[in-house]
Amino acid sequence: ALVDLPAPANISVWWNFGSLLGLCLVTQIATGLFLAMHYTSDIATAFTSVAHICRDVNYGWLIRSIHANGASFFFICIYLHIGRGLYYGSYLYKETWTIGVVLLLLVMMTAFVGYVLPWGQ
Q1: pLDDT, tens digit, 9 for 90 and up, residues 44-57
Q2: Nearest one of 119, 116, 114, 121 to 36, comparing CA atoms
């Protein structure tokens, strides 16, 4: 049974956010792929394609909402994950912390690119 598995004594609720990040990432990739199937990247029609997704595609409004709110939840989990790392002194492991900072910057850049896709209209 799951209850019988050994666990460290210092484990707490704060250790869940890494797993939640993985779940959010899978959700973002899945919804992003569905949105990309109907998105047009031309400057003149980008916003129109987003409106088409929300109005004409079956459950397109739901997929877009899950994708948009999932991005916010992803960043909430990232900041809580970083906060846990700061609290427990994970920054002392230089390589791991540096990789985490690089990943944070990559995620921020990716989020910015995703935010500007409809060309702000």
Answers
A1: 888 999 999 999 99
A2: 114
Q: CB within 8 A of 75, min separation 6: which ones?
A: 107, 111
> pLDDT band for position 86 (50/70/90)?
very high
Q: Which residues contact 14 (CB under 8 A, 6 or more apart)?
A: 80, 84, 87, 88
Interior/surface letters 68-82, b for 16+ CB within 10 angstroms, e for the rest: eebbebbbebbebbb
The CATH homologous superfamily of the domain defined by 17-115: Cytochrome Bc1 Complex; Chain C (1.20.810.10)
Radius of gyration over alpha carbons of the chain, in Å?
18
CA–CA separation, 112 and 72 (whole Å): 12
